[in-house]
Amino acid sequence: MKLTPRQMAWRAAQDIAEGACVNLGIGFPEMVARFQPPGREAIFHTGNGIPGFGEAPAPGAEDRGLINTGKKAVTIRPGTAFFHRADSFAMMRGGHPDVAIPGACEVAETGDLTNWSTGPKGVPAVRGAMDLVHGAKR
Fold this sequence. Notes:
The protein has helices at about 5-15, 85-95, 130-135, and strands at about 20-25, 45, 100.
């Protein structure tokens, strides 16, 4: 049975351990934080350098300066940090995230990623997913 993006996000959230640092990629991974089980804390990280960001703001309360990698508005929580994107990727390559949920262009049924293209008008590139799958513990 094919899962919807919401179902995949819910399922992924169930496997996140208490206190885990989790990098969320673009697309359905952005929804994972919404489905975190009640009482289970995790530090969600976005590739543009905002570890500890919070949920999406209420409609009309968005701050255009607070966005995740997918350009969606987020909120800040106590403990949220801000740093340069290069430092964010250094953290990823350095093995600091416990879990990475990348936004994959294509995933084979074996779990292999094929993030080699940015589309017909873009320059071919592996993007940040390769840093994530290499550096995250899980």
